[in-house]
Specification:
This protein is mainly α. The chain contains nine helices and no strands.
Length: 160
């Protein structure tokens, strides 16, 4: 998974993670840290295997690691994090050695990861959307009472 290591070591990825950490320091709700990105990547990989989909592991991890990387731009500039993440992700994926086709497919999945209908249009989009939702333990969240997410957005528990 050499390309995944290139993502994690990329200056733009590191900058994004530092910015998100600083901006979410006092956040009581679920965050967008490395734990979340790895949880999404691992769940997406498991689902890929369970569904016998033909994606390389580093493509799945590329999507999982980059899907929220633009969150700091949502906080600081009001840009939707899915849009910012796809823009930042494109640069990182190119530098990490992903093909133009892989980069485009991953960026499409990132762009659609917040919208179920859009995510359902591609296998990678569907996998990323579902993994992102499953990764959140809303049913056990200490901030659940203060959360403004609708019941539909909240994860009800373990989803088979």
């Amino acid at each position: 998974m050499e390309r995944v290591q290139k993502i994690i070591r990329h200056p733009a990825f590191k900058k994004s993670m530092r910015m998100i950490e600083a901006l979410e320091k006092e956040r009581i709700f679920c965050g967008h840290d490395m734990k979340h990105l790895l949880d999404v990547s691992r769940i997406a990989w498991i689902e890929t295997l369970e569904q016998s989909l033909d994606y390389p592991k580093d493509v799945i991890y590329g999507a999982g690691l980059l899907h929220d990387v633009g969150k700091y731009l949502q906080y600081t500039e009001g840009i939707g994090h899915h849009v910012a993440s796809a823009d930042i992700g494109r640069e990182i994926l190119d530098d990490a050695g992903y093909t133009p086709e892989e980069t485009e497919e991953i960026c499409r999945a990132i762009l659609s990861h917040r919208n179920r209908e859009a995510a359902e249009k591609t296998a990678l989009g569907r996998i990323l959307y579902r993994a992102d939702k499953i990764s959140r333990a809303c049913y056990a969240c200490p901030a659940a009472e203060a959360c403004n997410w609708s019941d539909e957005k909240k994860t009800p528990g373990v989803i088979a």
